[in-house]
Amino acid sequence: MRMRFEELRRLLLIAVLYTLHTITLNVGTQFTTAARSTIFFSLYPLFTVLFGHFYLPNDRLTVTKTLGIITAFSGVFLAITPNLQGGSVTGYLIGDLIVILSACFLALRITMTKVFVQDIYPYRLLVWLLGLNIPCFYVLSLIFEGNEPVEWTLESSVGLLYQGWIVTGFCFLGLTWTLRKYQASKLVVFSFLMPLSGVLFSHLFLDDKLTFGLLAGTGLVAMGIYLVNRQR
Fold this sequence. Notes:
Blueprint: H1 8-30, H2 34-41, H3 44-55, H4 63-80, H5 93-116, H6 122-145, H7 154-179, H8 184-188, H9 193-206, H10 212-229
Helix pairs in contact: 1-2, 1-5, 1-6, 2-5, 3-5, 4-10, 6-7, 9-10
């Protein structure tokens, strides 16, 4: 787990990108609707493919791969379009642009992780990613949320454990480990399943309506994943 001096610059870059993508996502969502934020944040696989084309020599952009990414995103858009709230599009423009910027930061972090994880062990990369970010977020919390009361409830405690152990722990480590072996563009396209899964779980646990758009969108996402991962 010990950091090597020659790794410090690369780990700092990963940590900064993680901080920027988290901040811009939270800030941008405040200025737009949650549904619009979900759609625009789902663009990050597209940016990952573009960054990978320039930074990853064995992960070049192809016509089939591009078609698969566009098909998968079209499925997401089709599925959650009914959830878009009314209002002026221009009124949400600033928030939309900030969320798109967040998607760019996340895509660049995934691409750089793919580059660095070839030399830095995945566990060590994850530990220092969080170790360098925690003090930063703590200071920001003191500045912007110092006067906010903290209420410990069962729901908030379970939420923190889920975010910490499952999302930040297992999922980040799993992604970092698989990036060591598989192409970034072939992995991130599965991220299009996230918003669809949210809608499906809402139907299962909250009795939200299951629409034709959701079913059609799921089919398009599956087709996009197939196109991106199809071998010659």
